[in-house]
Amino acid sequence: MELTIIGHWGGFPKKGEASSGYLLTHNGFHLLIDCGSAVLSKLQTMISAERLDGMILSHYHADHTADIGVVQHALYVGKFTNQYDRTLPIYGHMLDLERFNQLSYKDVTAGIAYKSEEILHIGPFRISFLQTHHSVPCFAMRIETDGKALVYTGDTSYFKELEDFARGADVLLCESNFYKGMDGSAAGHMTSEEAGMTAHQAGVDKLILTHLPHFGDLSRLKDEAAEQFTGEILMASEGLKIII
Ligand SMILES: [Zn+2]
Ligand SMILES: [Zn+2]
């Protein structure tokens, strides 16, 4: 599978860039993971929204969902201008029914609930879930296909079970919204040091730091994670492609 970083900023997008959005492609199937602010604009530099086969959301904070409404509008307009004749499934949890219900729009998108205790199959992907420690219900995802595994943490503070969940993954796409020495637990976010610890304890192959902060020297995040994890570490950046 191929992972492309569309947006990687925590909280809100940096000027000219996007907040959380990741495109996962395998055998021509396009799954969008999270749909934050400016994600549609950036996605269209890669593929049109009409080529998406599915969308899945970790949680309903705006930096992960702000562009759902405009994706719905783009597809709706496409029904008239491009003979777009599909209904895009948007997978989300049902722990916030008001937000879940907004995933369905006309015959353009259809909200589909995932449950943390059930395996979800979307196209070629097998997806399992783990609820994280965040200020609203949020789920980490383990996405597997062809013997490869990507684990995306969503938003979370550090907790031990995440290591078991990420065990042996080829890639850990891990939030790192804080620097070493800070306490992210109240905000529901991890530090660079905790991201590195999680990658090390889980024995993953590669760590990608994402959901990056708007303060401090970002290169420190990688150095601090590298004190804990000796494998390859990448900083998420717009357009970065990883073959998994
Ligand atoms: Zn976030
Ligand atoms: Zn959040």
UniProtKB/TrEMBL annotation:
Domain Metallo-beta-lactamase: start-end pairs: 18-200
Keyword annotations: Zinc
InterPro entries xref list: Metallo-B-lactamas, RibonucZ/Hydroxyglut_hydro
Entry coiled-coil feature ranges: none
A Pfam family per the record: Lactamase_B_2
Superkingdom to which the source organism belongs: Bacteria
Xref: SMART domains: Lactamase_B
SUPFAM superfamilies (alphabetical): Metallo-hydrolase/oxidoreductase
Signal peptide (UniProt feature, chain positions): none
Database matches in PANTHER family: METALLO-HYDROLASE YHFI-RELATED, ZINC PHOSPHODIESTERASE ELAC PROTEIN 1
Protein's name in the database: Metallo-hydrolase YhfI
Gene behind the chain: yhfI
